[in-house]
Amino acid sequence: MQTKLVKIDCKNIKKDELKEAAEIIREGGLVAFPTETVYGLGADALSREAAKKIYEAKGRPSDNPLIVHICDFKELVSIAREVPAEAEQLAKAFWPGPLTMIVWKNDRVPYTTTGGMDTVAIRMPNHPVALALIRESGCLIAAPSANTSGKPSPTEASHVALDMDGKIPMILDGGAVGIGIESTIVDLTEDVPMILRPGYITKGMLEEVLGKEVKVDPGIIADASDKKPKAPGMKYKHYAPKADLVLVEGEEVAVIQKINALVLEKQKKGEKVGVIATDETKNRYQADYVVSIGARTDEDAIARHLYKILREFDAWEVDAIYSESFATPRIGQAIMNRLMKAAGHQVLTTEQERD
User: Fold this and answer.
1) Largest CA distance in the chain
2) Distance CA 150, CA 233 (A)
3) Which of 284, 342, 288 is nearest to 316 (CA)?
4) Contact, 28 vs 44, CB < 8 A?
5) pTM of the complete model
6) Which helix (H) or strand (E) holds 155?
7) Terminal-residue alpha carbon distance, the chain
8) Which tens digits make up the pLDDT trace of 322-347?
9) What DSSP letter does each residue of 247-315 carry, written as one string?
10) How far apart are CA 233 and CA 230, in angstroms?
């Protein structure tokens, strides 16, 4: 299969540019497209066979549900067994945007789309190309990230091409995404809403809108790796580069000293080493490749650059990666959730080593 790459100006989308992509979706095929979070791999959400193609192209476990992307709230109503009041409140506040809501599904949604579950995950993306494709196709579009399962999510069309070239008919290139980490997932099927995946929309933001407590699944918290997450997809290793990744936590000076010592050990063995630093610390490392993820005070930049940096290390064929910790105040939990999973929960804490 030859994969066609179609570049689209997000500020001037022409209907003709989306016509072929929409037809592919309607006929049960796959199209990769940009959202505000990461690039998605889309297919008709209400087609069993189309959903199966997503799992096959990604090498994705069949019990890992797909998120259904919509362009109008009435489309949620059309596939939900019931619509919680919280869903309407959150949709008014955050849709279109990086929030996925889980509700009970009705019979229109096949179990291939929901990973065999009686619930369905739904979101309305805040991206002109994504919304235009949903409208033009006339379909609800199931779309996980457009990467090989387990690898870093794609934030540019070139990342999609690396994983999906020859596997799917078309990639819509809308440029680099804005946020860079996947949407927040909140489960609305129980009495107390629960965050199953942290993201740009935080616990505090949800609680402010709902006026009540929102829980966080303990299985997704970085230091609770022994607990199984409630969302099936969160139990799998995700976002991982080819090289072994280790996080180093602690006071800045101690972290820099420790990482430099670890780098030197690897280099003495003839290995190529990469370091993920910040603008403030990047000049204090002696690795083969030192990449700044952004200023430590700029949480949005850290989130936006994370997956791109992991993919750059893949391209440079490094043997090991060491990263600083980025427990920032607003979306730090989401950033660290991705990093911890990419590292397979390998963390060195400098304070512990001194004790």
Assistant:
1) 65
2) 10
3) 288
4) yes
5) 0.94
6) none
7) 58
8) 999 998 899 999 999 999 989 998 99
9) EEES-HHHHHHHHHHHHHHHHHTT--EEEEE-TTTGGG--SSEEEE---TT-HHHHHHHHHHHHHHHHH
10) 9
